[in-house]
Q: What sequence folds into this?
């Protein structure tokens, strides 16, 4: 049933756009001249003087008609509302139409799926919005079908755009398949919050620039043996296993040949190693040395690190392979895609640029580090002015305030500039499969070999579709 | 003319919602991208056949239909024969067999999930008998689970069809046969089955179509990437839809429809020949 309705949707949509296609073209050449008065001329009144409009010819007509940029998001977002209002005030000939889904807690999942399906079909039919928030959409599939414009080209062509004003470490590393198809308006920092003092007390040296999972395992053994805390990392064995596999993706999955290698001694050994870590208390839910964490904002940085109730917490990069270049991890947030089929591409890009600029002020407490360096600097200024940040009432701080500490802020800026590895917003199918199937092994219900066989079975199906 | 007028609404509906989209789908399957793509001949089909997951899905679908349809026909025919004669609680039984048709799928699936899960009822029983448990949905057994579910769900409907067919066979034939000394078996093979053949064609057709519909239950039961034994063609198409690969999706749909049309044509031709022979 699902497919059938899907198919129907695609083709009826395709039918509509097929019929309209030629019509749109002629409309386009005559300048989209529907509605809207022109302000730029000052004295001119297009409605009153139809003759003048004709004389001005092509160049004028593009400015004359009011252009509409459709911007589709899943959630309602005040930030976008604000950007829309400001931008429309500055550019009276542009109208920005924000679309979002009204949803509530009970229906989020169903609405999300519906949102993805309708957006997918609309995009495929060339009738989609001009701008989309990609966080909840399968961006890689969009890129594969050539549905999104590459922001790298737009940035290069745009003389007024100075890339150095932005966090280039993020812009350069947020790409997919060799292009920047989603523009991260903001980002989170990902890492392990580690208890520096407790680690030092246990006599362990950690170089998070180059520590591999092997190193992590070694260090963990020592920490459990010599340290004060019962656990090393607050996590689930399934998550750790998934992280380890995705770090060595190529070892397990050869996409070109469509070959998965999970039914191997290497993988079952890895599973057993993770299980041993869980059994030995390396992975556990009691007091650990490390918390996997996501830092949302400068304010959040201060409260989160304090929230673990240790005096001296610091952000560590998660373990990675030796080949990975040293650097921290980030996750793009409010990633904006620009439809390749958009008729107002330049205008849409201009709006994206506006959203990236420091014009859209954001509080140092709101979610996401801004991609704009100046906006980030402004946030830090404001944070220093505030002097302290109040923790969440319901959180471990119980609303207690955390003072703003210059040294900590300095450190944060280092992390923000040093984050070069992207963590996908959504977990991939392979990650899901590994996590779900491995649960039975970690709970002792199935053998490692049986689970490896299942993972092999499903991943093979997935990569050979 | 008048007939056409009355047919028009349903014809238009059928054309708009089925025929035209399908023809567009066929066209899509020969282009390289959705909308405004250029003609690439059989490239999509080549890609499709090169995909081992597609071949697996096609094989599974055929296997499932091949196993479940004959089983279903045999089971529902026996039931119909049984319930066609006077017996205790006949009407109640007839109703009971129809029940699965009216129960919502979601609740059926939930019961089966609880039943066949790794930690489910079936494994609890196995444990009681001191046997190793079996991962019903994540092993080759999964196909068996589906077959049983399909039988359970469709047996009542087919039984009704067969009952109707049985009741349209004139009793005189049996009487004559009995007088001439034909045994039970002979009556079954030379009267019942022969006069049931038109019904049989219809039931086979419906059963095959219903066997494709088992995807809904499978999907709810085991998700979009189930154990590869129950990974059906519709899983493939559904996943292609979600990864926006409309080309492969339409190519797969065209192939599937092509096969079904071929099969049905063959079946209908056989039926016509049979009917000609009868007269």
A:
């Amino acid at each position: 049933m699902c497919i059938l309705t899907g198919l129907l949707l695609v083709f009826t949509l395709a039918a509509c756009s097929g019929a309209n296609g030629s019509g749109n073209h002629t409309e386009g050449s005559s300048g989209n001249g529907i509605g809207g008065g022109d302000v730029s001329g000052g004295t001119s009144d297009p409605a009153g003087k139809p003759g003048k409009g004709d004389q001005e010819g092509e160049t004028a007509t593009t400015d004359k008609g009011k252009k509409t940029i459709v911007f589709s998001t899943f959630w309602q977002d005040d930030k976008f509302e604000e950007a829309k209002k400001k931008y429309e005030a500055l550019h009276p000939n542009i109208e920005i139409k924000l679309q979002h889904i009204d949803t509530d807690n009970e229906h989020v999942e169903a609405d999300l799926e519906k949102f993805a399906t309708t957006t997918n079909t609309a995009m495929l039919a060339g009738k989609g919005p001009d701008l989309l928030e990609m966080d909840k959409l399968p961006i890689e599939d969009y890129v594969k079908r050539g549905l999104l414009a590459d922001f790298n080209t737009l940035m290069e062509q745009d003389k007024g755009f100075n890339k150095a004003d932005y966090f280039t470490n993020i812009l350069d590393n947020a790409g997919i398949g060799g292009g920047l198809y989603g523009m991260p308006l903001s980002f989170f920092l990902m890492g392990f919050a580690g208890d520096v003092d407790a680690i030092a007390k246990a006599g362990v040296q950690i170089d998070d620039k180059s520590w591999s999972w092997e190193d992590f395992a070694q260090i963990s053994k020592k920490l459990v043996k010599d340290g004060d805390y019962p656990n090393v990392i607050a996590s689930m064995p399934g998550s750790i296993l998934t992280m380890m596999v995705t770090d060595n993706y190529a070892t397990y999955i050869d996409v070109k040949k469509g070959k998965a290698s999970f039914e191997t001694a290497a993988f079952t050994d890895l599973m057993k190693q993770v299980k041993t870590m869980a059994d030995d208390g390396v992975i556990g839910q009691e007091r650990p040395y490390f918390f996997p964490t996501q830092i949302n904002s400068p304010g959040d940085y201060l409260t989160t690190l304090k929230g673990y109730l240790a005096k001296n917490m610091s952000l560590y990069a998660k373990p990675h392979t030796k080949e990975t270049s040293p650097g921290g991890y980030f996750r793009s947030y409010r990633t904006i895609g620009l439809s390749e089929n958009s008729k107002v591409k330049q205008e849409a890009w201009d709006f994206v640029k506006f959203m990236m600029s420091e014009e859209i002020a954001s509080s140092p407490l709101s979610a996401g580090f801004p991609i704009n360096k100046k906006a980030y600097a402004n946030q830090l200024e404001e944070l220093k002015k505030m002097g302290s940040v109040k923790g969440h009432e319901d959180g471990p701080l119980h609303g207690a305030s955390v003072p703003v500490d210059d040294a900590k802020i300095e450190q944060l800026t280092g992390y923000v500039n040093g984050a070069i590895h992207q963590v996908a917003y959504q977990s991939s199918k392979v990650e899901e499969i590994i996590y779900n199937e491995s649960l039975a092994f970690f709970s002792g219900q199935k053998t490692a070999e049986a689970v490896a066989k299942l993972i092999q079975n499903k991943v093979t199906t997935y990569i050979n579709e | 003319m008048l007939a056409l007028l009355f047919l028009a609404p349903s014809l238009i509906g059928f054309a708009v919602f089925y025929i035209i989209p399908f023809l567009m789908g066929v066209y899509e399957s020969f282009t390289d991208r959705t909308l405004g793509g250029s003609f690439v001949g059989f490239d999509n089909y080549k890609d499709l056949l090169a995909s081992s997951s597609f071949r697996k899905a096609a094989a599974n679908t055929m296997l499932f239909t091949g196993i479940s349809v004959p089983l279903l026909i045999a089971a529902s025919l026996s039931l119909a024969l049984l319930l066609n004669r006077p017996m205790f609680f006949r009407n109640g039984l007839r109703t009971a067999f129809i029940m699965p048709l009216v129960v919502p799928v979601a609740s059926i699936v939930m019961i089966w999930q609880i039943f066949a899960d790794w930690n489910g009822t079936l494994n609890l029983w196995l444990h009681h008998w001191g046997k190793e448990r079996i991962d019903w949905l994540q092993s080759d057994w999964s196909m068996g689970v589906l077959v049983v579910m399909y039988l359970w769900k469709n047996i009542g409907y087919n039984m009704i069809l067969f009952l109707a067919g049985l009741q349209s066979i004139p009793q005189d034939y049996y009487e004559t046969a009995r007088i001439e000394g034909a045994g039970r078996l002979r009556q079954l093979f030379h009267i019942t089955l022969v006069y049931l053949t038109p019904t049989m064609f219809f039931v086979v057709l419906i059963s095959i179509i219903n066997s494709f519909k088992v995807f809904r239950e499978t999907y709810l039961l085991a998700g979009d990437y189930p154990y590869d034994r129950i990974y059906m063609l519709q899983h493939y198409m559904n996943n292609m839809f979600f990864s926006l690969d409309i080309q492969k999706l339409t190519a797969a749909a065209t192939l599937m429809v092509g096969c079904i049309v071929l099969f049905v044509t063959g079946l209908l031709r056989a039926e016509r020949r049979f009917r000609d022979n009868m007269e």
